[in-house]
Amino acid sequence: MRIRFIVFLLLVFVSLPAVYKLLRPGYYSMYDDMQVVRLQQMDECIKDGQIPCRWVPDLGLGYGYPLFIYYAPLPYYFMEGIHLIGFSFINSVKIGFAASVVLSALFFYLLLKYFFSKKAALFATFFYVFAPLRAAGIYVRGAMGEVWGLASVPLLFWSLEYLLSKKTIRSGVLLSFSLAAFLVTHNLTVLMFLPLFLLWVVLRLYQTKPNKKFVLHSLFFISLGIGLSSFFVIPLIREHNLVHLETLTSGYFGYLQHFLNLKQLFLSLKWGYGPSILGTGDNALLGIGPIHSFLAISGFLLVFYKHRNAKKLMIPILLILIFFVSAFLTHERSTFIWKILKLDIMQFPWRFVGVSVFVSSFLAGFLLENLSKKIVNYISIFMVVLTLALYLPFFQPRDWFNITDSEKLSGENLKKQLTASIYDYLPKSAKRAPDDFPVSNLIPIDGQIVINVEKSGSNWFYYDLDVISNNASVAIPTYDFPSWSIAVNNKKVDYVRYGDFGQPGFILQGGRNQIYAKLVKTWDRKLGDGLTIFSLGAIATLFLYEKSIKKYI
What we know:
This protein is α+β, with helices and mostly antiparallel strands. It folds into two domains: 2-394, no CATH class; 443-520, Sandwich (Immunoglobulin-like), CATH 2.60.40. It is built from 22 helices and nine strands. The chain has helices spanning 2-19, 35-47, 67-70, 74-84, 89-112, 118-129, 132-139, 144-166, 169-183, 187-208, 212-228, 230-238, 262-267, 290-306, 310-328, 335-341, 353-370, 376-391, 405-408, 411-419, 523-544, 546-549; strands spanning 243-244, 426-427, 443-446, 449-456, 460-475, 484-488, 491-493, 496-498, 503-519. Strands 3, 4, 5, 6, 7, 8 and 9 form a seven-stranded antiparallel sheet that branches. Strands 1-2 form a two-stranded antiparallel ribbon. A hairpin with a 2-residue loop joins strand 6 and strand 7 (491-493).
């Protein structure tokens, strides 16, 4: 236990240079500057009892929209937990970024320990942490989901190796939770790494040759993992056609504008805080970088030179093939593959650099493991110092502002966040996005009303009002989306879409009216929640009756 604790502290120490610039009051600019407001919206959901959080009340310029049906929520649940124990929203976001690095280091080290010595595993982990793509993800783009995705991948691979080595109920449950975490952390990370993971599973099963009983039990734990993630995965798949997604793949986000050339991919050290743009003028380092390119190729060549045993070469060959395939997908010559596989949802081809970084860091372990004992320490020290000299300056923000939650979440700062990405996940009931906030908390269409009481939560509205005219038509200031349920004086009423924004509109009779509107769960959301609860119950049962169940596995 003491050794494990020392190793953990060592991994934190390795990660610290990448994140210590975050450990001060204030905040910094980033391209996806919505992390704080997303977390604040998640907080409103949780405190309002909307669990799991799906509909956020204030994004979409105050009309709300179904952000967390489509946007993977796990990093935000983690940061919400940090916020609930007393940290500000801003500090919780910074802790979220820092935690992604520490967790990446921890899980990558645990994975590589199954293949290399502790020294080689630590060496390779260092390079997984200090990749230019990670620096850009945290300090330029503010891509919380992506950097957490880089932590979820080694977690998933490690949990498989742990199951193969231990073959216990607990190791199977670890695989279930790891798979669930992988599926609800970042959608595009899943699309990139799932093929690699499936290839890895086939290879490792071939190498370890487990019996059929073990394979069946593993499939059971994988199904539990899918079940745990169903609260998110099922609505995501089944309800993707309910929102505007075309803006995610058009204009600036069209993939044809964001391919890299070979210099950008393998050799460039040009760092900047600009966006990815058409052509080769990117003022940002989005490629693999020369160090990871060297590690991948030299690590493979050295192990190939020293070992001609086919079984020992299977993993390095798979990794180097994945390295070049993922690198090829960032180049414009791969356009035909993007068209055939319809990869436009990936938006930026350089996202596949994340795969290249993962496998090149893995191959770094083969490099250190196969170097001569006479030079291994000199080479490892030289590579670490060179990496810090070249890449450490990238791990810092361009600017820093002494700003608090109240300043970030008010005035023009708040409006910018509520307006940003307004077309992302905009319900199709809206013909266009709004230009400003709703004019009132209940929109009068015709007739005269006097509102006595009005309340609202994360996904509900309540009004107590008097209709002075014979009748009146009103609309709730939100987008129509499955499934709003509206009751007037405790009786459910039908509604129609009103205006360009598709607001739920209905008729009220003269006199006093009490209105309660709530976004209720569709069958797909109920099914997803039910499967998640069932999977948690199944796992609890496995632990309760672990001794008895061991007889059958």
